[in-house]
Amino acid sequence: SAVISQKPSRDICQRGTSLTIQCQVDSQVTMMFWYRQQPGQSLTLIATANQGSEATYESGFVIDKFPISRPNLTFSTLTVSNMSPEDSSIYLCSVDGQTGDQLNTEAFFGQGTRLTVV
Amino acid sequence: RKEVEQDPGPFNVPEGATVAFNCTYSNSASQSFFWYRQDCRKEPKLLMSVYSSGNEDGRFTAQLNRASQYISLLIRDSKLSDSATYLCAVDNQAGTALIFGKGTTLSVSS
Fold first, then answer.
1. pLDDT (tens digit per residue) in B17-64
2. Residue A103's pLDDT is what?
3. Which residue in chain A is spatially nearest to B50 when comparing CA positions?
4. Cα dihedral sign for A98, A32, A112, A107?
5. B46 at the A interface (CB within 8 A)?
6. Residue A85 — φ and ψ, nearest 5°?
7. Average per-residue pLDDT in chain B?
8. What is the count of residue pairs from A and B with beta carbons less than 8 Å apart?
9. Is B91's CB within 8 Å of A48's CB?
10. Pick from B91, B73, B72: which is nearest to B82 by CA?
């Protein structure tokens, strides 16, 4: 499985500011994803980060609030913009376990970024 | 109906017990099914994939019932170290990403 490095691991931010989270993978991967896990909840898919094109957002998530970059096959960033306390959550980068084949595509996760907005 | 549903528990069992978790999914076209384990304040880690024929890995057995659209995880001879939250995951409509259940919390006590 790929080794996924995510940073920062945690941060405390003032409301109204923005935070960019970085995700670095030690090998080229086809699919990269960003999830959010709010306290006591499961993982919610924010978007699929597409290399060379705009990210694909899930219902309830928009590019203005969560801009995503994917400049190459090993790196992606997620920005949480104009933060409010409701954005306090764990944000997780994820990659698929295979190259190309969508079937049986298990996901592997970075360590997560624990964000607290005050 | 939610895409992926699990009984949140918690399941409190003694060491050595057998415990089973179920997870239902709404997309009949789903092809990929997994169980993940998440320890407190850690990221989810893949426990096992779930195959149509069912599969076993030591004390863990996973099964898929396509007709009823659920997957199950059976843990035999529970250990203290099995205490964690178990998440089921199913591929989304496009088959490009995983949708997770809320997780089932297991607490094994001595």
1. 999 999 999 999 898 899 999 999 899 999 999 988 889 999 999 999
2. 47
3. A104
4. negative
5. yes
6. -55, -25
7. 93
8. 59
9. no
10. B73
